[in-house]
Structure formats: structure tokens, C-alpha cells
Amino acid sequence: MNPLRSPKMSLLDQDGAFLPISTTASTVTADEWISAINFINRVNFYFESNDQEQMANEFSPNAKAHFPGMSVRGEEEIRALFRDKYSVMIPGVKRYATNHIVDRDEETGGVIVRYQNQLVRYAWPKEVGAPRGPRVAEVLVTSEGLPRIWQCSTIMDRLEKRGSGWCICERYVGDHIVDETLNPDKQPC
């Protein structure tokens, strides 16, 4: 039996590992594949710019998000997470989503996107100030051995169609590797 077809499925096995990647032919259309990856990349830019309103809008109202050591559910908890935890992590960090795999979510009819997400610290928060979006023709000279990879994660997002686009109905952040020397509180004086 395909574990992706079980009712009220979890995308994790009994040991908390992501379910295996499907080896059967994908039923995801080219348009779905392209638009799902484009959506994930757009969401990463919203996070990079700390656009908390847009970040929250990309999750369904009843979305669940699972991180190492914590889970949140629903719009209120997701907004609180972005406000209270993410806002201090974003300044001086670029986000790169790579190695996307898109499979059909048999339960919802949407798609499941698995990818690697890297957070690269290019500057310390006090050096760049408030988070901001990309700028044209700006060169930032860094010090302290930056840029360096701060965090790497395997992420699995369940996406559902909403209007003409996608929304995240569930997010799993797995294998989370952190270089703690690059945490915001470790900034050199």
C-alpha cells in the first residue's frame, strides 16, 4: 500500500522520518511543478524580506508547521511565530531553496514539495539593520569570515490550491543542521 494514500496521513513514518520519495511515475503536471517551485521560491523571498503579512498569507488559515522541538497550528500561532521568533533571525541572512522534488498529494489533490533550504549569513544583524528585500546594484562588503552557511534543513511542504495559486497547509522542517557560531546572539563585539 502506498503510504501517501492513507486517510488522515502523516508525511512521517513511525520514527519521525520523512516518508520515502515516490518512485512511481508522477501525476504532477508540468504547470503544477513549475508553479509549486515558483511559489516556494517566492515564499523564501517574503521570509528574507521579513514581510510577515505576506509570509502568513501564504499559509492556509488552519495550517500546521512542525519544527525541531515545536509545532504551531492555525493563523494566530503562525503569526506569533513569525513575530516573536523569525524577526530576530532574518537580518543578514539569505535563503536558498534547492533540489526540489514535487509529488502529488493523494489526500488533498495538491502537491508535496520536498527541498533543501539553506540560510546563509552574509552579515551580522547589527551591521545591516532591519530586514529588507533585495536591492539593485548594492555591494555589501562583509567581514568575520562571512558569508557562511548558518543553517541547512530538509523541508517538506504540503501545498493546496487557493484561487489561482498555492498555499501551504502543512510544513515539516526536518534534518536541521545549525552552525551555532552564526546565531544572532553570537555576533562579535
Q: Give the total of domains.
A: 1
Count of alpha and pi helical runs:
4
- Average pLDDT confidence is 83
Query: Architecture in CATH?
Result: Roll
* Largest sheet entry: 6 strands, mixed
CA radius of gyration is: 17 Å
Cα-to-Cα separation, first versus last residue: 57 Å
List keywords for this structure.
disordered N terminus; 189 residues; 6-stranded mixed beta sheet; globular; Nuclear Transport Factor 2, Chain: A
What does it look like?
- This protein has 189 residues and is α+β, with helices and mostly antiparallel strands.
- It has a single domain, classed as Roll (Nuclear Transport Factor 2, Chain: A).
- The protein is built from 4 helices and 6 strands, in the order ααββαββαββ.
- The protein has helices spanning 30-48, 52-57, 74-84, 125-128, and strands spanning 59-67, 70-73, 93-104, 111-121, 148-162, 165-178.
- The protein has a 6-stranded mixed sheet with strand order 2-1-6-5-4-3.
- The radius of gyration is 17 Å and the shape is globular.
- The termini are far apart.
Layout of helices and strands, plus pairs?
Blueprint: H1 30-48, H2 52-57, E1 59-67, E2 70-73, H3 74-84, E3 93-104, E4 111-121, H4 125-128, E5 148-162, E6 165-178
Parallel strand pairs: 1-6
Antiparallel strand pairs: 1-2, 3-4, 4-5, 5-6
Q: Brief description of this entry?
A:
This protein is α+β, with helices and mostly antiparallel strands and 189 residues long. It contains four helices and six strands, in the order ααββαββαββ.
